[in-house]
Structures are given as C-alpha cells and as structure tokens.
Design goal:
6-stranded mixed beta sheet; Metallo-beta-lactamase, Chain A; 326 residues; alpha/beta; single chain; Rossmann fold; 27% helix; disordered C terminus
Length: 326
C-alpha cells in the first residue's frame, strides 16, 4: 500500500501519469519527447513519433509499418512493460510514479488464445484500465467455443466466404482459423499481409495467406479476410455479389444481435481481443488498487459498478484540467 498522496492521472492527449520528474504520457496522438505506446492500433498511434517511444520491439515494428516512420523501441527505468494479451506486441505498463505504483493496462485481455498469453495482473496502488466492454451484457462465450463456431461455419458454408476483422489483431486470428477449416485457399488484403510479416517474424507463426489480386475470381473453397473498414465499399460489395460469397463479421460487439444487421453480415461471431465485463471485474480484483481510473468504452458505467463494489473508482474524461473536475 502507498503512503500519502497517490499518483495523479489525467486524460488529455493520451493518458498522463504523474511522476516526480513530470508527466509520463501514454498513447497520445502528439506525444512529448518521451512517450509510452501500449500497442499499434490506430486509435492509440501517434501522428508524429516522439524522440523516445517506450514500447515493445514488435509494437515499434508494427507502428513503423503503419505510419511509414522510423520507430525504435526505448526503455525507461521506471516502466515495467508486461504482455497485455490484446494483440501481438501489446504491453501494459507498471509505472513507478510519484506516490506509488500505477498500472496502465492499455487495451487488455486475460484470455490465452492463439499465439498470445493472457495478461497476468500485478498488484498496484493505482489502476488505469480500459472499459470497452464495461457493462454486464458484454460477456463472451468460452474462447474455444467461439473458435469452433467459426471453423464450423467455414466448413458448413457452400461457396466462397469473406471475413471482416481488424487488420491488426483479429485478421491474423481469422487466418489461423481458416487454416483449421476445409478451405483450401486463403487470401488477405495488402494491408493485412503487410502486418502479417512482422508478427510472423516475431512469433514464428505461419499464416499461409496470399495477397488478394483484384483481378482474381473467388472460387468455391476460397476464404478472403479483409479489414472491417472495407465492409460496404462498392468494390467489396461487387466482389461478394459476383462470387455469391457469404460474409462474416467478427468482433466482441457481436454479442449484440444488432451488430449483424448494422454490418449486413450473413453471420457474426464474438471473437474479441478485449476483456469482457466479468474478466474486467476479475482483473480489478487481482490488482486490488486503492484508486481505479476507467477510460474508453463504458467508462462511466464501469466506474459506477466498481464504486458500488467498494472501490474508489473514477471515469477519466478527455481534456480535464484537474481532478476536481470529476
């Protein structure tokens, strides 16, 4: 347990954590000279890299690939990076701060799956935790069951299939699931193929996918994995229609049936790279912090739930100027 005042945390351009030598800034769009990057998803990436980027070697490689910048991983003596279980290269940070330790999870998952080990929460005085699925309706089926449902669908559908998932994270897992199925050809977009390369080099995983050629026709046993944001593009819709392909959307949001209709998918599966509500609750219990800050997703709802459970919990709001604004 800490003594005296706990470290302050605020949400401006990124999450800022108070240390004796200033504020350590995590996942900022425009970080200061030294910044922390939890992982290489676009909503956490910088627009310009800092002089020193505290992150894993793989996150640096992925960030360099996604931003076309020269990025190398730096280390900080007060920051202990730990596998966050979210996507390849993702890291949580246990930070020695002014007044105690702060655990910044970034995006996080405690489930072992594919080539990822689930996050193992350490104890900390202050916890800064994402709350993407921070309400009770978002509880996922067992990981093995979701994976088997996807493979069964791939085996049962007649004709080609197009699967949509985030280019970094979900797309790689979808490729591995296609390899478990009867499908004999697997294709991915250029963006996904470019991200496969550093992940394969770092993990030793073989994805076995070919780059999609727009002049190619989809055959009956083919599977094509595309980034979610391409769903609804005219050329994609034309491809699906001409091939008579079935479509699947893959996300934790698929727990909600509306996800299927909003995306116009033939099938949806709740394969997620985040903790669900119950896993978030267990994570907080394991850390046993004196103070919890929630951010992103259902931050307010999750903070209220934790407060009802006896925690000192606060939802971080963007552009705060002082803790008194809560």
């Amino acid at each position: 347990m800490s003594e005296g005042r706990l470290p302050r945390v605020r949400y401006r351009d990124g999450i800022e954590i108070e240390r004796a030598d200033g504020w350590l800034v995590a996942d900022a769009d425009t970080p200061p000279a030294t910044g922390l990057l939890s992982h290489a998803h676009g909503d956490h990436l910088f627009s310009e890299p800092p002089n020193q980027l505290i992150c894993s070697e793989l996150t640096a490689a992925l960030a360099a690939r996604r931003t076309d910048t020269d990025v190398t991983a730096a280390h900080h003596p007060a920051v202990d990076l730990r596998p966050a279980g979210h996507i390849a290269g993702s890291r949580a940070a246990l930070i020695e701060a002014d007044g105690g330790t702060v655990l910044y999870t970034g995006d996080v998952s405690t489930r072992d799956r594919f080539y990822l080990d689930g996050f193992e929460p350490p104890s900390a005085d202050v916890l800064v935790v994402e709350s993407t699925y921070g309400t009770p309706e978002y509880v996922f089926p067992p990981q093995w069951a979701v994976e088997q449902d996807i493979v069964d669908w791939l085996d049962d559908v007649d004709g080609p299939v197009v699967l949509f998932g985030y280019a970094l994270g979900r797309a790689q897992k979808l490729q591995l699931l296609v390899k478990r199925s009867r499908r004999n050809r697997l294709f991915v977009s250029d963006a996904i193929a470019a991200l496969n390369e550093p992940i394969a080099a770092a993990t030793g995983v073989t994805f076995g996918a070919e780059r999609w050629d727009h002049d190619r026709a989809l055959a009956d046993e083919d599977a094509l994995v595309l980034p979610t944001q391409l769903n609804g593009f005219a050329w994609v819709e034309s491809l699906i229609e001409s091939a008579g392909a079935a479509t699947a959307g893959v996300s934790g949001w698929a727990v909600d049936e509306s996800f299927r209709y909003q995306g116009g998918y033939d099938a949806t599966f709740p394969l997620s790279d985040h903790c669900d509500f119950e896993e978030l609750c267990r994570l907080v219990e394991a850390v046993d912090p004196e103070q919890v800050y929630t951010h992103h997703g259902f931050a307010d709802a999750f903070a209220r739930h934790l407060t009802a459970k006896g925690y000192d919990a606060t939802a971080l709001r963007a552009n705060q100027t002082s803790l008194s604004e809560f």
